[in-house]
Every structure is written in structure tokens, then in C-alpha cells.
Design goal:
heterodimer; A: 152 residues; mainly alpha; globular; B: 127 residues; Cytochrome Bc1 Complex, Chain D, domain 2; two-stranded antiparallel ribbon; 3% strand
Chain lengths: 152, 127
């Protein structure tokens, strides 16, 4: 009898462990959604290391071709939260080339089977558009089994 | 009765700031720093490129009365016209922030009050 309870319990316990490395922390400041997620997905901070986030946050007036400047108070708030929740494992925290998540070695390896023309589909547009294929990416869910690639 | 009025005033002062303006008020503010707004000039400005890669319409499309997608990231952008999206042009600080960012992207400089007035006056006519 006891095992019937034990199995779901164990499953529940196991879940956060596998999801946590990319998960979206519950304490994201409102400004993160308002300021950062207007133009792109709210990337979970665990996708980059501290140094990469620092580089991004100190160059917001020239942010991948656009002006994403913030007032000093908001900038500090978001930076501190990103620092606190940045990737710590070596694999994910290595300095990202051009400060791009999509240029990290782990990102490239994870996506090496995706053909060049797939990235260009209207439904995808850019490798930075995580939620095109990972529907719950903004919640930090990048599970391979739930990937759905747009056909157009 | 008096207490009720005070309570309402206190509540408004707390929740007011985020939605404290109307598009008309914001437009009047820009007009007072320049001249009378021209919706026709605003439409032209919105759709034209200004020496750089993008126009306003690159991301907002024209007329901007429906959900559109960011030209680079594909992220959905809510309609810009205050007639189709009541959350637009009701917060002066937010309006200024986005004019600063987007004018830099489209023109490589900040917009003048006249340009802002023109564009806003046109957006207010978009249904």
C-alpha cells in the first residue's frame, strides 16, 4: 500500500532537480518582464553566467542592434537579480561569445541536428526565439520530449 | 462621506501613477513643446525609413491595430493604437522610454516633440 504513495512522491521530488538548472526563479522582479520581455522572451537567468549578464547589462544602449536602455534604478534591480540567479555550473557559466546564449557551446551542441533552413522559418525567425519550439520556455521548460518545431 | 472621498483619493494616488494620463493629455504635452500635430505627417513618418534599416512599421506594421511580431526576435507586440489597445499612451514615463529607445533604433537619434506629436496624433486616428 505504502508504495502507491511513495511513487508519486518520489516523482515529485525528482522533478525540481531536473528542471531547476534552467528554471525561471519565482522571485523575478516585475521589471524583468516589463523591460526585457517586451522585445524577446524572458530568458531564465540560468542560461548565462554572471560575467555574460554583466556585459549585457552594462551595454543596454547598444543591445544586439537596438537601444534597450533603462533608468538606473531598474537597471540595478534587474542586474542584481540576474547575478543572483546566473548559471553556476561550468558548462553553462562559461563566457558566451558576443554575450549570446545562442553562441554558447552547450546551445550549439544541443541544437546541432536543427538544419539552417529550420531557423529561418517564419514560425521560428531566430534561434533566440526559444518559445517557437519550446512552448513553455519562458517557464524554463526546455524538455526535449516537448519540442514542437513549426513546419512553416 | 468625507472619509469615503479621502479613501478614494488615497487609492487613486496609489494606483493612479501607472495610468495617470490619457493619450489626449500626452499629445497636448508634446504639442505645447512644439506646434500643432499633423496626423498625415505622423503617418508618413511612421511608415518611412530614416537612414537606418528599420521603420516604425518594421515591428508595429501599418496600420498598427493588431498583434504584430518583432522583426528580429518574433516576440508578439501588442497593438500600438490606443483605440485598439487601451494600455497604450496612458503612462508618460513609459511613452518617453519607448520613444527614446525606438527613435534611436529607427533614426539614430531621439525624436523631437513635433515628431512625437505627429505620430501620436495619427495613432489616435487608427481604428
Amino acid at each position: 500500500m505504502k508504495t502507491y504513495f511513495l511513487i508519486p512522491l518520489l516523482a515529485l521530488l525528482a522533478m525540481p532537480a531536473s528542471a531547476s538548472k534552467m528554471g525561471m526563479p519565482a522571485d523575478a522582479p516585475k521589471s524583468y518582464e516589463a523591460e526585457c520581455a517586451s522585445c524577446h522572451m524572458a530568458y531564465p537567468p540560468g542560461l548565462l553566467g554572471q560575467k555574460s549578464w554583466q556585459n549585457i547589462m552594462s551595454g543596454l544602449d547598444k543591445h544586439f542592434g537596438t537601444d534597450a536602455s533603462l533608468d538606473p534604478k531598474t537597471q540595478t534591480e534587474i542586474t542584481q537579480w540576474l547575478m543572483k540567479n546566473a548559471a553556476t555550473k561550468e558548462k553553462y557559466s562559461a563566457l558566451a561569445p558576443e554575450n549570446r546564449i545562442t553562441k554558447t557551446s552547450w546551445f550549439i551542441r544541443k541544437h546541432d541536428e536543427v538544419r539552417a533552413d529550420v531557423w529561418k522559418r517564419t514560425g521560428v525567425k531566430s534561434p533566440a526565439n526559444c518559445s517557437a519550439c519550446h512552448a513553455d520556455a519562458a517557464k524554463g521548460d526546455f524538455n526535449e520530449d516537448r519540442v514542437r518545431i513549426p513546419t512553416k | 462621506m468625507k472619509k469615503k472621498i479621502i479613501l478614494v483619493l488615497v487609492l487613486v494616488s496609489f494606483f493612479g501613477p501607472a495610468f495617470s494620463a490619457t493619450p489626449q493629455e500626452i499629445l497636448r504635452g508634446y504639442e505645447s513643446q512644439s506646434g500643432k500635430a499633423s496626423p498625415a505627417r505622423g503617418e508618413q513618418f511612421f511608415n518611412a525609413k530614416h537612414g537606418k534599416e528599420w521603420s516604425c512599421a518594421s515591428c508595429h506594421e501599418s496600420p498598427p491595430n493588431h498583434d504584430t511580431k518583432h522583426i528580429v526576435t518574433g516576440k508578439v507586440i501588442k497593438p500600438l493604437s490606443p483605440n485598439t489597445n487601451p494600455e497604450r499612451f496612458v503612462d508618460q514615463a513609459k511613452v518617453e522610454k519607448w520613444f527614446k529607445r525606438n527613435c534611436n533604433d529607427v533614426l539614430g537619434r531621439e525624436c523631437t516633440s513635433q515628431e512625437k506629436a505627429d505620430v501620436l496624433s495619427w495613432l489616435m486616428t487608427v481604428k
